[in-house]
Design a protein that fits this description.
619 residues, alpha/beta, nine-stranded parallel sheet, globular
């Protein structure tokens, strides 16, 4: 067996997520040479110039010097390294920081093939080193970033590049650099949104706890679409951008030829234009319920979030499908009754969610309509999309502190703002993955790089016409409720006990605070190696773990987001001594426990109100 085949077999055994297959090899020429002291080194020939990844003199020494650039590394630090090369940099990094996670991504197919032929990967892949390779490298890289970049330790993430990797192909390198920046932006955007909308999110989440047992689960839709293979079919995502006015009437021609998914604000204009969406997507806790009271929109199938405005999910007569993995408690309820975890990936906007649904349903072609991602002529929405809590349909176009110009579909420019631009970049990331053909039929709006641009009329004629019609609305309406009446009664019976369970947890949290105070005393005395210190830390760890998985914690967290982020802010600081680090953890623990205790009184009052509203007798 060749080294190439041995490496592939070894990597598949150690890292089963890696897939090897055909990749698009370009014209980069990879050269293997010797350093001045006989080490194997790599160079890439580009435009008659050699770009060396290693030192031509003492490559191993240079790799060790490269590692010295990293400062303030602690046990929580995680390294995202662009480039594997001949493995010297990864070996040097692991040698100095053996306990830290290292995620290394080989971004060039040519180098990957050469590395598999020349390097023994058993000498590289050590504990805590994870490699990203193969045709799905972009998706894997994004998944690692999304899972590991959290508010708790974002400043412990180190993004770095092995020397000269950024020079080999600047455009390819930029894809990965921008992906890292985007994940950071998404994390902060999520934090700010949660804090700003906490009151609305809390009200909707708690009400939806009573609404979801009577409705449907996203997995039921997936099963329906799996039964009707959608790979050669098309989904159309209809958003409410100003350009929707130009082609909305053509959507009637797409009915039953493509799946029509309307983002919430686009549903009303569609009905006024004479076409009902097959599916509505809504995630906003503030969205006004009146936009779904046009015609028979209340009978349309809907995908919602547990944080969608409860007045919308409550008034809907058609099936409302909920995801199952928005938090541990919701997942546990669905899991108890045999449902798996179904999550909808989001880039921050409801249109991003709608696109992710199309991918989840198995569609390989997705058309975007009304996806302006900016403000043509200063307009915000399509003319019929304005609703009572969003009456202003124009922006202040001269406010250049907020708005800026980007490239438009017609070759000119369009005004946008940071959040809109973030949504656009998310679509571009999906285009880079290459899993779905994206057609931007927004006749106006911002240019989405990587998407094909054509008019809606051209797209329908080219892709949708001539295929057998499918009644998509029927597919989504023809389901039974996720829970039987008996199961619903079981869920509501548990709700009737919530206030008693709150009292039990409050007592446990008070004991937890006392344990933290004892731990604080031991910390001041420096008694870290005593049996009492070990016992207290184990007890507190177990208490926190049990509480975080409870339904009560999920409910109380709807009040404590700001406090949680304040505590996380202190934990992200680099402490200079063991005492200070332990003190920070103790103070944060006490603050969080006390916050839960304080908010428990608000939850009990609110829960009694909800039990009465939904006709459940409190125990």
């Amino acid at each position: 067996m060749s080294l190439y085949e041995k490496n592939k077999q070894f990597l598949k055994e150690q890292l089963p997520y890696i897939e090897f297959g055909k990749t698009n090899i370009s014209k980069l020429q990879v050269l293997w040479e010797k350093s001045a002291i006989g080490e194997d080194i790599i160079a890439v020939e580009k435009e008659n110039n050699k770009i060396y990844i290693n030192s031509r003199y003492e490559a191993e020494l240079w790799a060790k010097q490269w590692v010295e650039q990293f400062e303030n590394v602690n046990y929580r630090t995680k390294f995202f390294v662009i480039g594997i090369g001949n493995g010297m940099y990864l070996k040097a990094l692991h040698e100095k920081y053996p306990d830290n996670m290292i995620i290394a991504c080989e971004i060039y197919s040519e180098l990957e093939e050469s590395e598999l032929e020349k390097i023994d990967f058993t000498s590289i892949l050590k504990n805590n080193i994870f490699l990203i390779m193969g045709p799905k490298r972009v998706q894997l890289y994004r998944n690692y970033l999304s899972n590991l970049i959290t508010y708790a330790d974002y400043n412990q993430i180190v993004f770095c590049t092995t020397p000269n990797y950024d020079r080999i192909d600047e455009k390819v390198f930029e894809i990965y650099r921008k992906m890292y920046i985007q994940c950071m932006d998404d994390m902060f955007y999520c934090r700010n949104t949660i804090i700003a909308d906490e009151e609305y999110r809390r009200e909707s989440f708690l009400n939806n706890l009573f609404i979801f047992p009577r409705n449907y689960v996203l997995g039921q839709l997936l099963e329906k679409f799996e039964e009707n293979n959608m790979e050669d079919r098309t989904a159309i995502i209809v958003s409410a951008g100003p350009s929707l006015d130009k082609n909305i009437s053509q959507l009637k021609l797409a009915k039953n030829k493509a799946l029509l998914i309307a983002v919430d604000a686009a549903a009303k204009p569609m009905v006024k234009a004479g076409v009902y969406p097959d599916l509505i997507v809504t995630i906003d806790p503030i969205k006004d319920e009146s936009i779904f009271q046009e015609g028979d929109l209340v009978k349309c199938p809907m995908v919602a979030s547990m944080y969608s405005h409860y007045k919308i999910t409550r008034q809907q007569e058609g099936p409302v499908y909920f995801p199952t993995a928005e938090n541990d408690y919701i997942s546990s309820v669905y899991e108890k009754y045999g449902y798996g975890k179904y999550r909808v990936a989001s880039g921050g906007s409801v249109a991003n969610n709608a696109f992710s649904l199309g991918v989840l349903f198995g569609f390989k072609t997705i058309i975007l309509v009304g996806q302006d991602l900016g403000y043509p002529d200063g307009k915000v929405h399509a003319s019929q999309a304005v609703y009572k809590n969003c009456l202003d349909n124009e922006i202040e176009i001269n406010n250049r502190d907020k708005y800026y110009e980007i490239e438009a579909n017609d070759g000119g420019t369009i005004l946008t703002e940071a959040n809109m631009d973030a949504y656009r970049k998310w679509f571009e990331e999906q285009a880079v993955k290459g899993e779905v053909r994206i057609i931007n039929a927004t006749e106006g709006g911002a240019k989405i790089h990587g998407a094909e641009y054509m008019t809606l009329q051209e797209a329908l004629k080219t892709i949708c016409y001539g295929k057998e019609e499918i009644n998509f609305s029927y597919i989504m309406r023809n389901n039974k409720s996720a829970f039987t009446q008996e199961q619903q009664d079981e869920i509501y019976a548990e709700y009737a006990k919530v206030n008693k369970k709150i009292d039990v947890w409050v007592d446990k949290l008070k004991k937890g605070i006392r344990a933290y105070e004892k731990l604080d005393l031991l910390n001041r005395k420096g008694k870290y190696h005593t049996s009492e210190y070990k016992k207290l830390t184990e007890e507190l760890g177990q208490l926190t773990k049990e509480f975080s998985k409870s339904d009560i914690a999920t409910m109380l967290n709807q009040w404590g987001n700001k406090t949680e982020y304040e505590v996380l802010d202190t934990l992200t600081d680099n402490e200079t001594s063991l005492y200070n680090e332990v003190k920070t953890i103790i103070d944060g623990g006490i603050k969080m426990y006390q916050s839960y205790i304080d908010n428990s009184f608000l939850l009990k009052e609110k829960w009694s109100e909800l039990l009465k509203r939904y006709g459940i007798e409190e125990i």
